[in-house]
Structures are given as C-alpha cells and as structure tokens.
Amino acid sequence: MARAPLLQLSGISLTFGGDPIFSGLDLVVQAGDRLALVGRNGSGKSTLMKVMAGLVEPDAGNQVTAPGIHVSYMQQDPDMTGFMTLGEFAESELDPGEYYKVAMAAEGLKFDPDVPVATASGGERRRAALAKLLAEPPDLMLLDEPTNHLDIQAIGWLEQELKQTRAAFVLISHDRAFLQALTRSVLWIDRGAVRRQDIRFDGFEAWRDKIWEEEDDARHKLDRKIKSEGKWAVEGISARRKRNQGRVRALGDLRQERASMIRRQGTAGLAFDAGQKSGKRVVEVQNITKVFEDRVIVKDLSLRIARGDRVAFVGPNGVGKTTLLNMLTGRLAPDSGTVTLGTNLELAVFDQNRAALDPNLSLWENLTGDEGMRVSGKADQVMVRGQPRHVVGYLKEFLFSDAQARAPVRSLSGGEKARLLLARLMARESNLLVLDEPTNDLDMETLDLLQEVLGDYKGSVLLVSHDRDFIDRVATMTVAMEGDGRATVYAGGWTDYRNQRTASVSETITTKANRASSKTARPGKAAKSDLSFTEQHRLEELPQVIEKLESEIGKLSELMSDPELFTREPAKFAKATAALSERQSALAKAEEDWLMLEERASGG
C-alpha cells in the first residue's frame, strides 16, 4: 500500500503586487526525500518554502500536510519573544529528559545556550533556531540557508547530522559541496515554474542547460514560423486571406504563444581590471606573531605571496582570519616579525560585513558617493575602470532594475547587497583583491561567473571563505588556521589541503606508533599520562580503527573507479558515494582524535 505524501501543494498561485511568483504550482514531498531547492536570487525559493511551512497564504491552491506529520521550518529571523536565553528557546518544545540534544547541537554549531536573547547576534539566533529544529526532530525539515554564519567545522558537523537523520528535508543552500553531500533530488524554480528531477546535485547543471537549450531551439523555430506566416499575411492575395481566416487566427495564436515565453534573466556583468602590473613579490612576511589579550592569533608565520597567487584562508570562526588579512595588507601591524608589501599595489577589498554600503542611502547614492567612482560635475555618472558610465546602466549590468536604483540599500536582499558591493569593487582598477566571505548569499550562476572572472584576473587574490567548492575552484594555495597561533601553508585548494593534511597525520601516526612499540616500559613505573581510563582505551584502539577505515576507503574508491557504474547501477553508485563520504569524514575525525590524545598522553 502506497504511503501518503508528507506534504502536498496543489494549484498554488501567489502574487506580491506585481508579476505572479507562482501560478498553478503542484508539488509533492514524500517520506525519505532529500531535496535541493535551487534557483536564481529572487526566483521565490524562500517564499515557496514558507508556503510549504504554512507561513505564507497563497492566493489560490492548497497546502496539505498528512495527519500526524510534524513539519518544521528553520526561521531566518526567529521570534524569541518570552525567552531569556538561546538555550531556553531551543529547548522549548522538548521534555526535560531531552535537553541534552540542545547541548550537543550547541557544541556542534558553536553557540552558547546561556547567551541572553537580548544580546545575541543574528548568527547566534539562527544557530539556536537550527539547534531547536535538529533536537526535536520533525518528520520534514525545511532548511533555508542553514550554513550561513557557520564555519567549515560546523558545516561538517551539520552535514553529518543531516546524513544520519531519518527525517525528510528540503534544503536551500549556495554551498555546492553541502548540497552534493546531502541531496538526492533537485527542485528547480525557474520563472515561476518548479521542476523536479531525481538526480544528485552534480547532475543539475547538465539537466538545466539541456532544458534551456531545448527552450532556445523551440523559440527559434517559433520565430521562423511567425516570420513566415507574417509574410504570407502581408503579401497574400486578399481573397485567399478571406478564405483562410483560420490561418490568420493561428498566426495570432503563435504571436501570443511567443509573447508568453518568459525570457531568462541574464547573468551579472562581472569583470575585474587588474590595472597596472604589481611587482613579482606581492606580500612577504617573516616570523610574524599577533596576540589579542590572551589569545594567540598567529605565531611565527612566514609566507611569500607572488603575483598571480590565489590564497585561501580557512579555519573556525573567530580564529583570526580577517586579522591576518589586515596584517598582510598593511592595515594592522604584527606584534613581532616583518610584513613587506610589493611595489605598485592597488588594493580592492570586499568586506564580509558590507560596511562600505550605507543602508540608508540609495544604490545610486552609494555609487556616486564613492570618491573613487565620482565623475566631476555629473551626478548621474560613475567612473568604471577609467570610463564614465551612467549609474542606471551600470547597475543593470548587475541585474538591478531602474526602480531599485533609487531604493535604499536596506531594502535589498543579502545576495543583492553582495552584487552591489561587487559593482563598487569591479569599478576600480586593482591588482590585489581581498575577498572576505564574498560567496555569502550569492546564487550559483553568479558564483560560477565570479569564479570564472577570478580565474582570468591578472592580479593576486586573498580569499576568506567557508565555501569548500569555491575554494577548490579558485585557490592555488591554502593557509589553514587551526587556533593557538597555528597557521600552516598547503598547496592547492580545500580538497588538496585535506588530502595533504590526512597524509601528514597518517605519517605522524605511523611514526609515533612505531616509536611507542619500540619502547620497553621500566618495571614498577607507570607511564605518565593525563588521560582518563576511557581516553587511554580510545587511544589504544584508534590505530586499528584508522587502518580499517583506510582499507574500506580503498575498496570503495576502487569500486567507484568503474566509469560505467553510475549508468549500470545508479542505486549501487549512490550507496557507494554516501559510504565513501561517511568513511572519509570518520577517518579525518579519528586521526584528529588520535593526535589530540597522543599529545596529551605525552604531556604535549
């Protein structure tokens, strides 16, 4: 007997004072679904999710939830009225015996449940809302950008939690690696229509591009037919036209069909101009150290950045990535060591806090008020890479409308603010870009374009990001900041860093294990250790756990090396992919645990 769907939308239509957002939309979510909800910024993803959650009433149609099914929506701005602390809010739907679930989620998501609601930041409030949802848990989770305000470690923790959940979920995210690891099917919103395809996220773009190609072919064929029929209507003999009124009416229908075709939104006009060439050496630091109060940001770091390098800085929130950027660009002095900047540097900075934008001024005023973009005596023009441009024309290249040009910046979405900041940045000539969390809130098409533009950029790039896929696509060097002043330089992007680090840890484990096995304990004396009995037992068993995981990863990698496996046995391929990802994460965790316990056991 077929099971009833968890959630069903039928004939949903919705308009917010203009063009319809949705019209006649049908959608079903079944138990076990893991859906990626994708689409351009402004396409209606968040609105659709709110309709699914019952928070937005459609103009027409029905939202039906199966009896007894609990649907939970992760709120972007949760209402915490009446709660004293974040923990009290997160525990509000739980029995006292389940409060430990919030404590576990708080540890993984890195927030303090005891923080008062009145003083909590927006990011802390969002993390508390996410912890509340995970601790309950519902039958269907609706997750709107859950990785925002999370660092890479917290994203990894959340990834593992969602892999293990038995609940269905619908997920909006710009993080490709996150979507690829978690989702099995795609819901694509495009010009008010929602299409579903049961493919993994890595197949989405090929599917989307095929649909667009078919649309373009159909549009071209229709244009040719209209042109041919229009010529007949103009040049045909009058009497013949009278006898062929059906053909005339058909021409009108063709024109109406063509008018109803909604043209796809273009892509933002991103372009960087590297300006004059910098010196071959861009930044060189020798043994720099920086301490804030009792916290060591970086200790004895030496690094050389050459022209054309793309350097990514990764690590937990609060570890000091932005502080290190400020030292590398000369805006902050180290406590010791030297920072030497190269010659002819022209710096452009993308600030994660969007501080360069005045929320109370219009988009127009934010551009013309920028001294570096101002054209003397012309209030409607801005200087773009040395050439005067009309403000509205330039804004249109970044997908802003005429009406938005005069609207205040505070009315923009997060993605629109990011595009406006990119518009300011790209108007300047530069040869050193500092990009501090540039990917937040950008849709995937804009992310793709930004990655391509950075690939063609002739200058150097310093990048802070928690987007693993973006780092892989852009970075040629990665600086991993792991706390306590430790900063290690690796070649390549995020995946390269993880592979090199895993190899280094494995080599260290082998060396230390061999050294430990060669030692003979002195009679009558116990080895000195700060470990508990449980921790000591864990330390002793970890080498075998690691060896077993490495063996399983090798077998799974060999299985997936078969290029025909996906086509021949898609279910087997999906299971192998999930198993490989799970074991790789478990291996990284086991190696980190071994190093930590070994250092404590040896008094390190």
Low-pLDDT regions: 519-528
| Residues in helix, % | 40-55%
What oligomeric arrangement do these chains adopt? single chain
Distance between the termini: 61 Å
**How would the global form be characterised?**
globular
- Fill in the CATH topology of one domain: Rossmann fold
Strand order across the largest sheet: 5-6-7-3-8-9
Mean pLDDT, all residues: 82
List keywords for this structure.
single chain; 604 residues; alpha/beta; Rossmann fold; 6-stranded mixed β-sheet; 20 helices; globular
Describe this structure as you would to a colleague.
43% of the residues lie in helices and 21% in strands. Among the domains are: 43 residues, no CATH class; 150 residues, P-loop containing nucleotide triphosphate hydrolases (Rossmann fold, 3-Layer(aba) Sandwich), CATH 3.40.50; 73 residues, no CATH class; 74 residues, Helix Hairpins. It is built from 20 helices and 21 strands. The longest helix is centred in the middle third of the chain and has 32 residues. About 2% of the residues have low confidence. With 604 residues, the chain is α/β, with parallel strands linked by helices. α15 links the parallel β18 and β19.
